[in-house]
Amino acid sequence: MKAVAIQAFGRPEGLALIDLPAPTPAEGQVLIANEAIGVGGVDVVIRRGVLAGYGFKEGHVPGSEVAGIVTAVGDGVDTSWVGQRVWAFTGVSGGYVEQAIASVEHILPLPANLSPVDAVTLGSSGMVAHFALAHAHFAPGESVLVRGAAGSIGIMTVQLAARGGAGAVAVTTSSAERGDRLRKLGATHVLDRSGEGGEDAPEGYDVIIDIVAGADMPSFFAKLNPNGRMVAVGMVGGQPPADFGMTMMAAFRKSMSFATFSADTVAEADRRAVRTEQFAAASRGELPMVVHEVLPLEEAVPAHRKMDAGEVFGRIVLTP
Ligand SMILES: NC(=O)c1ccc[n+]([C@@H]2O[C@H](COP(=O)([O-])OP(=O)(O)OC[C@H]3O[C@@H](n4cnc5c(N)ncnc54)[C@H](OP(=O)(O)O)[C@@H]3O)[C@@H](O)[C@H]2O)c1
Fold first, then answer.
1. Cβ(151) to ligand 1 under 6 A?
2. In this structure, is residue 129 part of a structural domain?
3. What CATH code is carried by the domain that includes residue 180?
4. Contact 73/138 with Cβ under 8 angstroms?
5. Mean pLDDT in residue range 203-211
6. Does residue 241 carry a pLDDT above 90?
7. How many domains does the chain have?
């Protein structure tokens, strides 16, 4: 079968189309004929080689979420899965292939009206956005700032905060055009990357969901209202400054909170329940998906070039 592997860490050109034997599902696993493969930020980070210290090696097949038809099951798996269209989490590898293996615990049937492309756009980002807002104890009526809103997690956070009755949903983004698109998804105020701009934007926020971190993190933390909560979900802008802790302590009397959030700490049953609910909402047209582009699997290199160039608004999806 066709697959794409990272033959050399670094530039997108290190990705290559290879031939692999079709896999056989082991006990507890299913085999999926892929119809859509999500291109995630983590695939890009792994390709750059910066996670080599965590055991990633050249030859790695990236990709962590796919959707398609179950064509075979391993021992112990209900054979009624065969023929069903599912979304699947494949872990940190194994997605960029024609036929993927997933544990039966990590697959979910797709509602009839949800396309495989939409499923791999929503599957991980929607769940992360939901639990990040929950981790921040977001409540209706509160003001929310989403930092790094133009990525797949940010887009879902904007939509969920708006649907959840936020009093205001401010976003940071690098262009007016992206700001307009975010407004259509529920943003009420558009700020630039440094937090400036945004006519009539709130003076302070009850909740900040931060996908960026980096040097500006302290100035955003300072935008929290008393009892406000900032939750760091990603670090696309790098580490915060070493004295970030001092900023927090300097604001002692405002009772503000800072937390990190990783979906790794959410129980599988809870992730499943939220994904099921979100897939149903998307299939009813209540949760629009933002697909940047659909490209053939053979075009994984241009897909990664676009990711590197920061051109992507929403999700790039590959099809075998
Ligand atoms: N916590 C979890 O459980 C979890 C799960 C999955 C992934 N993640 C993390 O989430 C992140 C990826 O999320 P994503 O795919 O939604 O993000 P993304 O698309 O990589 O980035 C989000 C947006 O941030 C802006 N941005 C990029 N670089 C920036 C910089 N240096 N300074 C300021 N803004 C910048 C860009 O928008 P503009 O150009 O419009 O500003 C970009 O679209 C990664 O850090 C990943 O590790 C976390």
1. yes
2. no
3. 3.40.50.720
4. no
5. 97
6. yes
7. 2
